[in-house]
Amino acid sequence: MPATPDDYAECVLDLVNSIPYGRVSTYGVIAELARDLTGKGGPRTVGMVLSRYGSGVAWWRVCAAGGRLAAHKSAEQRARLRAEDVPFTHSGRVAMTLAGCPN
Fold first, then answer.
1. Among 53, 83, 78, which Cα is nearest to 67's?
2. What are the φ/ψ torsions at residue 63 (nearest 5 degrees)?
3. Cis before residue 102, ω within 30 degrees of 0?
4. What is the pLDDT of residues 78-96, one digit of tens each?
5. Which domains does the chain show, CATH number per domain?
6. CA distance 101 to 41
7. Using CA atoms, how far apart are residues 29 and 87, in angstroms rounded to an integer?
8. Looking at the chain, which runs of residues are DSSP E strands?
9. DSSP state of 59
10. What pTM does this model have?
11. Which of 23, 66, 24, 30 is closest to 46 using CA atoms?
């Protein structure tokens, strides 16, 4: 990936910025929306964009399918989501039926 975000990365960052406070989306949903706009990318590419350029956006509002948190940042992600009153299941996943965006 280039040192500065390309058009695809900018699209992903804009989509992540559009996730409302207290809501969560998935890498797959963001990838699908970005693909509709740019014609490229997938969930892993979204993860790479967030890893490289995501420090300025609410990266913690993006999780894996089924509400799984990012393995390497799960404690920080969980704390940030709890601060936004995002509901979790008993198994520790985000309750996507309640907090998923878009529904």
1. 78
2. -130, 175
3. yes
4. 999 999 999 999 999 999 9
5. 7-99 (1.10.10.10)
6. 19
7. 19
8. 25-26, 62-63
9. G
10. 0.91
11. 30
